[in-house]
Amino acid sequence: MYGELDASDIELLNAISNLAPVYRKEYRDYIYYLLTKQYKRELMGAIFQNQLLHGLLQSTRHLVERDDFPASQVEKRIGQMQELYFGIFEQIHLKYSELVDGLDSHELVRDFGKLSFENLNRACRSGNCLLIRMEMMEFYQGYHRHAQKKEARKIFAV
User: Fold this and answer.
1) In this structure, what DSSP letter does residue 38 have?
2) pLDDT tens, the chain, 158 aa long
3) CB of 77 within 8 A of CB of 63?
4) What's the CA gap between 123 and 133, in Å, rounded?
5) Cα–Cα distance for residue pair 90/92, rounded to 1 Å
6) Could you give the CA distance from residue 37 to residue 58 in angstroms, rounded to a whole number?
7) What's the pTM value of the predicted model, to 2 decimals?
8) How far is 35 from 28, CA to CA, in rounded Å?
9) Chain centroid to CA 113: how far?
10) 62 is a domain residue
11) 102's torsion region: left (phi>0), alpha (psi -120 to 50) or beta?
12) Is residue 54 part of a domain?
């Protein structure tokens, strides 16, 4: 970490060291607030703007729109989407939980994924094509709705 410090970082550390203990605590609280805000924004963007996840979702949606679709293939794709969704979630949560003590996981993202994948997996286990189609459409609409939220829209520089 020390090799990554530049002059502005040292200047900031010197300024913080000159703060009174009360202001140091306020500064630390503000940094935690900013990190939590950035965590939520990054998490929303990483999951709801993920092209691989979006592609899997789109192709699975098209698959279930057919009259006769293989439920095993849908179940496999749902498993891939679930693994990707929660893999991204865990990766970002771990990154920020190391910086912020007691970081609360972003319930909106976690609960949406948990509930949606539970419903999709239950529908696949039932083998009912109509139920699978309905749950898939509901997941797709919810995913799309979350992707349109301000904190989920993120421009990635290439």
Assistant:
1) H
2) 456 788 888 898 888 889 899 999 999 999 988 998 899 899 999 999 999 999 999 999 999 998 888 888 999 999 999 999 999 999 998 999 888 877 776 678 889 999 999 999 999 999 889 999 999 999 999 999 988 876 665 544 33
3) yes
4) 9
5) 6
6) 29
7) 0.82
8) 10
9) 9
10) yes
11) left
12) yes
Q: Please indicate, yes or no, if residue 157 is contained in any of the structural domains.
A: no
Q: Pick from 54, 90, 51, 59: which is nearest to 76 by CA?
A: 59
The answer to whether position 155 is within a domain reads no
Q: Which helix (H) or strand (E) holds 125?
A: helix 107-126
What is the rounded CA–CA span in Å between residue 132 and residue 66?
12
- The distance in angstroms from the start CA to the end CA of the chain is 27
| Domain membership of residue 17 as a residue range | 2-149
Two tokens, residue 153: 């829209």
Quote the number of domains for the chain: 1
**Helix, coil or strand: residue 128:** coil
